[in-house]
Amino acid sequence: MKGTELCAPAADLEEIDRIIDRYRDEKGSLIQVLLTIQAEHHWLPREVLSRVAERLSVPLTRVLHLATFATAFSRIPRGRPEVHVCTGTACHVRGAPRVLSTIEELTGIQPGETDLDLRYSLETVNCLGCCALGPVVEIDGKIHGKVSIAKTEDVLKSCE
Amino acid sequence: MNDLTMRIDGKEVGAAEGMTVLTAARGAGIEIPTLCHHDSLEPYGGCRLCLVEVTERGWSRHVVACVYPAKDGLEVRTRTERIDRIRKGILELLLARAPNSPILRELGEEYGADPDRFEGEGSFCIHCGLCVRYCAEVKKAHAVGFVDRGVRREIAFIPEIATRVCESCKECFPLCPTSYLQAAWVLVKSLATPA
Ligand code: SF4
Ligand code: FES
């Protein structure tokens, strides 16, 4: 990982075209294309959205509407890994606020933010569906349960 | 053509399959207030101001006239105490966004809405979608669209398209119930083509 590069690398449009072609003739291809680009590139730059609109023959207004509507999409670069702290009711009573502030301290970012090195993105979520494990932190799809303050740092490190 | 018969405010009204309650009522000279409806656009149901009470098989409920399909035997009431109260509330919320809109002020007066009931947030756009839908459906230019959602939702011009088509069109301007559309356009124009 390029640790100190401040900008996200420019999108490779050939790569984007390949993703578009994968779904091109399917119904509902727009959302699939955007989800795949988001998953592989971690954000949706404007020139990528224009490209998607053009190649799928969908108005750019619709692409922008969708890309700004769903929280799964990001118009700014997101880091790797994406850290999701559950602040749903069960996790909240089980200590999510303390876990969250520990992560904020360790990473230096607030929910909704990404650090300058693109090393972390932090996001709060409302329920991950495993309340018995609370407080829960999900990092790149992997669930970490019963996260204590002491464990928080290890959990973060485990995914670097 | 008039194969359906309904009663609107006690008056017998004929309608055709595929019509909405709103078009049937207006055809019979019964006025229902609207903000987001436009005859040449698809039904939208965004502002909820046109809500009416319908009674079907003994059940009554509130629906929006501009979307609800005309049906045979439908009983419609366009003004009741409850309807007036709901419309007043809607107008008060919209007036908090666009306090100077002449259409909103006029309707607000009719329904006794207090323009200061909710703290103003001066965002001016009431999200009626007329500009966005007119541009997409009638002009097929897609120069303006909605972005974001919830309280952050707003209209956004696509500069590449807008600088090309809007100057000579501007057909959506008179449709806007507030002055937001024009203000947004002036802003985009000055950003896209600095003097
Ligand atoms: S700018 Fe005007 S016409 Fe467009 S959505 Fe807002 S209020 Fe409606
Ligand atoms: S006119 Fe019916 S909801 Fe706006």
Key attributes of the depicted protein:
heterodimer; A: 160 residues; alpha+beta; Arc Repressor Mutant, subunit A; Glutaredoxin; 2 domains; four-stranded mixed sheet; 7 helices; 44% helix; 10% strand; B: 195 residues; Ubiquitin-like (UB roll); two-stranded antiparallel sheet; 6 helices; binds iron/sulfur cluster; binds FE2/S2 (inorganic) cluster
Over the alpha carbons, how many angstroms does the gyration radius of chain B reach?
19 Å
Beta-strand fraction estimate of chain A:
5-15%
Residue fraction in strands of chain B:
15-25%
Main sheet record of chain A: 4 strands, mixed
Overall 3D form of chain B: globular
Distinct small molecules bound, one entry per kind: iron/sulfur cluster, FE2/S2 (inorganic) cluster
**SS content category of chain B:** alpha+beta
Q: What is the succession of H and E elements of chain B?
A: EEHEEEHHHEEHH
What oligomerization state is this entry in?
A: heterodimer
Q: What topology, given as strand order, has the largest sheet of chain A?
A: 2-1-3-4
**Which CATH class of the largest domain in chain A applies here?**
Alpha Beta
- State the helical fraction of chain B: 25-40%
What is the average per-residue confidence, as pLDDT of chain A, rounded to a whole number? Answer: 87
Q: Approximately how much helix is present in the residues of chain A?
A: 40-55%
Low-pLDDT parts of chain B are: none
Number of helices of chain A: 7
Counting DSSP E segments of at least 2 residues, the number of strands of chain A comes to 4
Condensed summary:
The complex is a heterodimer of chains A (160) and B (195). Chain A is of the alpha+beta class and 160 residues long. In chain A, 44% of the residues lie in helices and 10% in strands.
